[in-house]
Amino acid sequence: MSQPQEFTFQTEIKQLLHILSHSLYQNREIALRELISNASDSLNKLRHIQLSEEQYRDNVPLVITLEPDKEAKLLVIRDNGIGLTHDELVQNLGTIAHSGSKEFLRSLAAKAEGEAAPSADLSLIGQFGVGFYAAFMLADRVEVVTRSYREQTGWRWESDGSGRFTISPVEGDVPRGAQIRLHLKDEMEEFTDPHRLKFIVRKYSTFVPHPIKLDSDTLNEQKPIWVEPKNQVTDEQHTGFYQWLTHHSEEKPLWHLHLSSDSPIQFHSILYCPPSNFEMLGFGQIEHGINLCAKRILVQDDCRDLLPEYLRFLYGVVDSADLPLNVSRETLQDHKLLPKLKRVLIKKVLDYLSSLAEEQPETFKTFYQQFGPILRTGIGQDFENREKIAKLMRFHSTHTVDQTPILTGSTSDQPKIPAVSLDAYIQRAVEGQNQIYYLSGPDLDALSRHPHLEAFRKRGLEVLFLDDPIDEFALTQLHKYEDKDLISIDSADVVFPESTKPADDDSLKPKPKNFTRILELFRGALDNKISDVRESSRLTESPCCLVNPQGTMSNQLQKVLSHTMKDYEAPKRIMEVNPHAGLVERLCELSGNSDNDEFIRDCGRQLYANALILDGLIPDVEETTNRAMRFMEELARSKSSIVL
Ligand code: ADP
Q1: CATH number of 382-500
Q2: How sure is the predictor about 408, in pLDDT bands with cuts at 50, 70 and 90?
Q3: Which CATH architecture has domain 5-218?
Q4: Is 440 in the pocket of ligand 1 (CB under 6 A)?
């Protein structure tokens, strides 16, 4: 017989094997889950092949068998699926194939950059799933004895996990499929105990769609709960199914949606929302899809075509009898049914969220806090449903913030959860108000003090606060909600409803003499920086503010763009001047003497610089500080040292 061929593992596998063999004890149960899941995949693949290629059909039931041998300290996980050829052994069990293990290594590396000790995150192995190599958590030697459904010869793959593996042909008959033979480590003998194995299979693998046998008992339920009537599925079953789908073994879903429909498309589905957003923990985008079944049989796990990006956090299963069983991944993509299913699912999820907001506001709050940032991106992605998504958005606003003042420092541990919906805003809107006002900026504290708000507060008009740039992108794209225009309050498009004119309306007061002269001087001084200078009706205290010309972006969006686009040029703004501010009134008086013209121009330039700073932008630093210096010098000169 020929010598076994020797191979070396890919470097990443060596790292992974090292981590796995030192991993925490409680993770070891999931090793069995991983191997059973591989066996189940292999059975799925075989079933698929049998459906499309007659020559591979037989009537042998597809099963996974556990064969413990206490004496030999051996556990065999056997399946009669597709098996592996020689080349598949080299390729699949010598390089990193499993997306979970890649993610896991990537996340460890990413975390290690930011933190001193990545070891704590080893506990997350279970959630990523590390595939075949998990075998080395239990065994110090692993053999894979296998025969591919396409071949007569069987092969033996063998490794002690130290960096090398061998492959040799097996003489005699090898049954189709694969046996993973785990030569258990000394402290892993419990994995030969039938009770223990039963417990682990029930905990992690009960929804595997093929029988898992030990002796002649079937250990798993394999009940497709999604085809059961809704009211017959218990919470425990949902929790179990959720944990199986997500590998989040200690969690319960935040909510679930169980759907059945006969027309226009026949399908059953259960969708689960996790209780927290894993992406927020700094793992980047978590990639997973939905399990797609045809008449209870898995056609594709991880199907990304059933839900849009902005609902990517949902887990679940969709089962349609209208889907042919032997559809392949490639033809599935072109299948007309998928977009139809997707449309229905989106609608159902958005409707459900809307009812959740009314019926279980606390659950909705948690949901929005965790997944709101992902959901909101849908407004830009899904034209058809953007009104529905907008309905689910929540904001802070002058209404909520002015009632519960924002305290700087952490006097309250309560996270500030936005609570104002666009519908609630519209209900509170004043008579004749055709616009929904918003202001965006980096944080609530700064937003609630912004000078632009003066006039709105005085008139009792609610302003939404957008402290996440996504919100503003979303609202800009939405443009209108119900019949009201969404408008940033730093825009020149703002219109105040007639009914809100304050009793002491300054605009009724006569304007100071020479006010137009002041506007002219300012215009001359700032000619190349702004598009116009004009009288303001929105200010009560401040002398001036900058607004964006009609139809242009808000300050905050401009800021975001100037950070992301190198040669972004912001549109010139309009400077609005308040004729009744003390300083402006005095300048009007001074303008009677043309000797003061240059001083008034300088004041205009300084007011412009101040307004930029208030909007979080930086004026020309040298020019601004030099001018301030000159003002101080002049003021100092005009003071007297004589004590009267
Ligand atoms: P994954 O299953 O995510 O691809 P694994 O590391 O678990 O990653 O397995 C690598 C590959 O080895 C699988 O993709 C599959 O091709 C093959 N494999 C593993 N277990 C079996 C099995 N029981 N039968 C057939 N092929 C298998």
Answers
A1: 3.40.50.11260
A2: very low
A3: 2-Layer Sandwich (3.30)
A4: no
379 close to ligand 1 (CB < 6 Angstrom): no
Interhelix angle 582-590/515-525, rounded to 10 degrees, is 90
pLDDT at 117: 42
418, 396 Cβ separation under 8 angstroms: yes
Residue 507 has pLDDT above 80, yes or no: no
Compute the distance between CA of residue 291 and CA of residue 287 in angstroms, rounded to an integer: 13
What are the extents of the domains in the chain?
5-218, 225-367, 382-500, 506-638
In this predicted structure, the answer to whether residue 456 has a pLDDT above a threshold of 50 is yes
How many angstroms is it from 53 CA to the middle of ligand 1? 22
Contact, 122 vs 240, CB < 8 A? no
Is the CB of 40 within 6 Å of ligand 1? no
What is the CA angle 314-316-319, rounded to 5? Answer: 135
Q: Which CATH architecture has domain 225-367?
A: 2-Layer Sandwich (3.30)
What whole-number distance in Å separates Cα of residue 51 and Cα of residue 56? 9
Residue 137 dihedral angles phi and psi, to the nearest 5°: -75, -30
pLDDT attached to residue 116: 42
Which tens digits make up the pLDDT trace of 514-559? Answer: 999 999 999 999 998 999 999 987 887 889 988 888 877 777 777 7
Which residue shows structure tokens 């730093």?
490
Q: Does ligand 1 lie within 6 Å of residue 39's CB atom?
A: yes
Kindly report the protein residue whose alpha carbon is nearest to atom 16 of ligand 1: 92
pLDDT for residue 402 is more than 80: no
How far away, in angstroms, is 183 Cα from ligand 1 center?
Answer: 19
N-term to C-term CA, the chain: 118
Instruction: Tell me the whole-structure pTM to 2 decimals.
Output: 0.75
Ligand 1 atom nearest 79 alpha carbon: 23
Q: How far is the CA of 240 from the centre of ligand 1 (A)?
A: 24
Whether 16 lines ligand 1, by a CB cut-off of 6 Å, is no
CB 81 less than 6 A from any atom of ligand 1: yes
- Looking at domain 506-638, its CATH architecture is Up-down Bundle (1.20)
Phi-psi region of 157 (alpha: psi -120 to 50; beta: other; left: phi over 0): beta
Identical fold for domains 382-500 and 506-638, yes or no, is: no
Pairing of strands 154-159, 164-170: antiparallel
Q: Ligand 1 centre and the CA of 314: distance in Å?
A: 25
Atom number, ligand 1, closest to the C-alpha of residue 37: 2
Nearest CA to ligand 1 atom 17: 92
Query: pLDDT tens across 409-455, in order?
Result: 444 444 577 889 999 999 999 999 999 999 988 788 888 888 789 88
Rounded distance from Cα 238 to ligand 1 centre (Å)? 28
Q: Which one has a higher pLDDT value, 248 or 392?
A: 392
How far is the centre of ligand 1, averaged over its atoms, from the C-alpha of 105 (Å)? Answer: 18
Alpha-carbon 129 to chain mean position:
21
97 lines ligand 1 (CB under 6 A): yes
Q: What is the mean pLDDT of residues 268-281?
A: 91
CB 585 near ligand 1, within 6 Å: no
CA distances from 69 to 122, 204, 215, 319, 490 (A): 30, 22, 12, 39, 75
